[in-house]
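FIELD: query
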Amino acid sequence: MTATSVSGSCDPRFEAVRGLFEANLASGADVGASFAATIEGETVVDLWGGFADEARTRPWEADTLVNVYSTTKTMTALTALLLADRGELDFAAPVARYWPEFAASGKAQITVAQLMAHASGLSGWQETISQEDLYDWDKATGLLAAQAPFWEPGSAPGYHAMTQGFLVGEVVRRITGRSLGTVFREEIAEPLGADFHIGMGAEHDARVADLIPPPAAAPADLGALTPLLINVMTNPASDPLETRTRAWRGAEIPAANGQGNARSIAQIHMLLANGGVANGKRLLSEAGCRRALEPQVEGVDLVLGMPARYGLGFGLAPIIPLPGPNCIFWGGYGGSLAIIDMDARATYAFAMNRMGVTTIGDARGLGMATAMWSALA
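FIELD: result
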């Protein structure tokens, strides 16, 4: 095969999307990638191509998986939305209602909604932790329960890059008695037949593409960065090569270690786009889906240093250009992307292995989504 070999299907209306997908592979912007879109519950684009490794020895297949970093957060949010829709979780309730130890150090009034919206003040760990500590659920959550917030909860957003998954995940575990990855698998992924994993079994390892780290940047002047961002970046430092290990893949890190592809991301978020129904199965009510649109906090993100507007687990316009007011999105370190348009009842998803340098709004996935909107208009 060649670097530009593209497989899959694409509705003729969206040939421009196929063109962009092929061009990214031909130019080297992508080594291996997938893009998928659904409208009104039907898959209209499902493309994959390129290679699963930097040496270009393994083709990217229909069932290739890849670590999508923070796009995993959309699955964590969906799991919480499902529990809330069933009446098992109240976003307005204090976290300590479900997780009593969390009330320590002045956190008794922090709500579950503030965890979902990156507004709890727990953007990172106060105590120095190691990469291995991310694989120790009790330690990672226990430290967060004990520490004080870095800023007044609810007063401003501050991206909870790694901590959000542990925080929301522990609330889910306290309510259900099961880990977030287990609830997600049993209640969402398996009923929909979706190939997305939070805590992945070794039997899938051979299908996983290697993440290719982004180009090395000039050494950052840490003195020019905020202490909150330094904490997120260095405690512990993120190493894309760690995603190739069994320890990373097998752990549950619900903010960052989801393994999937564009098809499974779009297939799962069809639930939110279509009022709670996907593949003929109703898992949520329409009202339960639309809760994700409820603005929770906005302002300059104290970690990212950019304007932010967060709903219940998702980003809202105008963080990135979106086609309408009832859209939610999030992306992952390196370029993965999930967008849900509740008005058009559409989903758009991108997953790749060559990591870009932007953290939000990578031009590859966003460019193909924009081409979809143009065709629909």
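FIELD: remark
The longest helix spans residues 72-85.
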